[in-house]
């Protein structure tokens, strides 16, 4: 990038003469800033729009976390972008050239999960006509993403814990031990602590999975992402369409219980049904003023300003709560309490 900027600068200077160098330096560096603040990223082929301060801080933290081999648990509502974050972690890690394997633990029955994860040898059960590598073997040296990890049966939780502890295992019906080097990233939309308290999830596995915990904030708490995301989905569907200002206002005020998945569906539906080149509020199946947090009023705007300052401080401090608290002139405990009040503590990293 720096080379490209230097080259562009050289071309400008050659064309216009060196006397304007000062002005051009300013111009080129402005252009550089504009380009580097672009909010579109691609992680393993998946496009991600990251515009809000809270998501940008989360991505910075993900980049830092990615460099280690620590297991990461990603929490967040359904459709908020947990898989996108998991892919970003693999993308930023030293394993990015190695396999990325994902498994939805809620989508397969127990006996299939076991053979999927650990593989089997020929004759292990009727129908096992060949040897089959499990996902752990396929992910060797890379990353395995266990989505909806709270759905894992207890028997599988024990097996997973052993693999995480580096204990070699047998394929089903196998006689040779297999050892793998895999980085685990898991995700759930459930509060795993409650599942542990209820006895549905093993405490030892919970602690093993939560070396680092990251929380993706729901879309309603990162309003700055709504417009760029909506425009991104609209452009993907039909680049000739635009949103009217009142349509954008409705989008920004909606609570988005289904998060980004819901936003994409609403945008595509409106794009399909609209009669003209502009999508109006009437084209959206959403209620006006449906977002109480975004409603105007002294209390909420004060809270909004406070949130903005907090997220900016976190952003400037690369997600470091102690530094952000110092910047804001409040204690780390107060900052942490405020983040909890907003229900948006996007990170609970235990570094
Ligand atoms: N930042 C983002 N930019 C663009 N698309 C996104 C972003 N985050 C999520 N999505 C899209 O929204 C959908 C839901 O995201 P996903 O990561 O699967 O959510 P979750 O795993 O939390 O349910 C996916 O289709 C994904 O590509
Ligand atoms: Mg998901």
Task: Work out the strand percent.
Answer: 5-15%
**What order do the helices and strands follow?**
HHEEHEHEHEEHEHEEEHHEHEHHEHHH
What's the CATH class label of the largest domain?
Alpha Beta
Bound molecules: adenosine-5'-diphosphate, magnesium ion
Helix content: 40-55%
CATH-level-4 superfamily name of the largest domain: P-loop containing nucleotide triphosphate hydrolases
Q: Can you give the mean pLDDT?
A: 82
CATH topology of the largest domain: Rossmann fold
Please identify, by name, the CATH architecture of the largest domain.
3-Layer(aba) Sandwich
Number of strands: 13
**Side-by-side strand order of the widest sheet:** 4-7-10-3-11
Terminal residue distance: 31 Å
Helix/strand/pairing category: alpha/beta
| Largest β sheet strand count, sense and barrel closure | 5 strands, parallel
Question: How many domains in all?
Answer: 4
What is the general shape?
Answer: globular
Number of helices: 15
Radius of gyration: 24 Å
Low-confidence stretches: 1-37, 292-300, 343-351
Account of the protein in words:
This protein has a five-stranded parallel sheet. A two-stranded antiparallel ribbon has the order 1-2. A two-stranded antiparallel ribbon has the order 5-6. The chain has 15 helices and 13 strands. A hairpin with a 2-residue loop joins strand 1 (about 40-45) and strand 2. Mean pLDDT is about 80; it is low at about 1-35, about 290-300 and about 345-350. Helix content is about 45%, strand content about 15%. The protein is an alpha/beta fold and about 350 residues long. The chain folds into four domains: about 1-35, no CATH class; about 40-215, Rossmann fold (3-Layer(aba) Sandwich), CATH 3.40.50; about 220-295, Helicase, Ruva Protein, domain 3 (Orthogonal Bundle); about 295-340, Orthogonal Bundle (Arc Repressor Mutant, subunit A), CATH 1.10.10. Bound molecules: adenosine-5'-diphosphate and magnesium ion. Magnesium ion (MG) binds near residues 82 and 83. Adenosine-5'-diphosphate (ADP) binds near residues 48, 49, 80, 84 and 260.
């Amino acid at each position: 990038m720096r080379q490209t900027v230097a080259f562009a600068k050289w071309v400008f200077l050659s064309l216009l003469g060196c006397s304007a160098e000062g002005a051009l330096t300013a111009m080129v560096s402005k252009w550089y800033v504009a380009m580097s603040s672009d909010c579109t990223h691609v992680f393993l082929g998946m496009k991600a729009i990251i515009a809000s301060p809270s998501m940008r801080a989360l991505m910075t933290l993900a980049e830092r976390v990615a460099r280690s081999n620590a297991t990461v648990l990603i929490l967040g509502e359904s459709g908020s972008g947990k898989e996108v974050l998991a892919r970003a972690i693999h993308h930023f890690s030293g394993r990015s050239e190695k396999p990325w394997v994902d498994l939805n633990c809620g989508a397969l029955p127990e006996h299939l999960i076991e053979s999927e994860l650990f593989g089997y040898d020929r004759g292990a059960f009727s129908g096992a006509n060949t040897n089959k590598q499990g996902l752990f073997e396929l992910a060797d040296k890379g990353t395995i993403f266990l989505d909806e990890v709270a759905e894992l049966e207890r028997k599988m939780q024990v097996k997973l814990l052993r693999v995480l502890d580096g204990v070699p295992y047998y394929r089903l019906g196998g006689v040779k031990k297999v050892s793998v080097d895999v980085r685990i990233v898991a995700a759930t939309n459930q509060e795993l602590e409650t599942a542990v308290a209820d006895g549905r999830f093993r405490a030892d596995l919970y602690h093993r999975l939560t070396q680092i915990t990251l929380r993706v904030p729901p879309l309603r708490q990162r309003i700055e992402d709504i417009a760029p995301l909506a425009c991104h989905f609209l452009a993907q569907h039909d680049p000739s369409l635009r949103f009217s200002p009142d349509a954008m206002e409705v989008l920004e005020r909606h609570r988005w219980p289904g998060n980004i998945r819901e936003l994409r569906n609403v945008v595509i539906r409106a794009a399909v049904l609209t009669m003209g080149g502009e999508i109006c509020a009437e084209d959206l199946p959403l209620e006006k003023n449906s977002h109480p947090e975004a409603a105007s009023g002294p209390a909420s705007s004060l809270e909004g300003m406070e949130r903005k300052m907090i997220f900016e401080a976190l952003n400037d401090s690369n997600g470091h709560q102690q530094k952000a608290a110092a910047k804001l002139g409040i204690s780390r405990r107060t900052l942490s309490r405020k983040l909890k009040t907003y229900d948006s503590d996007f990170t609970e990293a235990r570094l």
